[in-house]
Design goal:
- By secondary structure, the protein is an alpha/beta fold.
- The protein has one domain: Gcn5-related N-acetyltransferase (GNAT) (Aminopeptidase, 3-Layer(aba) Sandwich).
- It is built from six helices and six strands; from the N terminus they run βααβββαβαβαα.
- It has helices at residues 12-23, 37-49, 102-110, 125-129, 141-145, 148-152, and strands at 3-6, 54-61, 64-72, 79-85, 118-120, 137-139.
- Helix 1 (12-23) crosses helix 2.
- It starts with a strand and ends with a helix.
Amino acid sequence: MIEFRDATAADRHFVVSSWTQSYRTAFTAGFIQEEDWYRVMDEQVAKAMARPDVRTVVAAEGGGLYGFITADVEERPALVYYVYVKAAYRRGGHGRLWDRGLARQLFAAVGVDPALPFHYVCSTPMVRTLERKIPMAAWRPLFGRFDKHKRKEGRG
């Protein structure tokens, strides 16, 4: 049975490496040279995860991890940094392994309804493929770059 729980220190490598590997070829990932990608981005992902009010929830079963969501649900609307599900566990139109897809279950576990307004930081080809499932979402990459308190005070 899959459980949805807050990420632990032991889960950090899975989250950071899955995020940076899956985001590496996104057109929106910035102007970071390929040879510097992991060194730069692993640190940036870790910083985002460490921000106040940011939570990472993982989908786990036994010793295996299937995916995660990183979000700040104290923001209004919520700010989703990244959602990742291992390819083998994505529905992708090939039938349902569970009542709902893992990404939708991860959204629920962190407290974000994907049918309602929310902002997201990282845009990937998969996000654009699934846009019809998140019609109220708005891409706000700068919200992930600047500290929310500075941003709300007009300093970021």
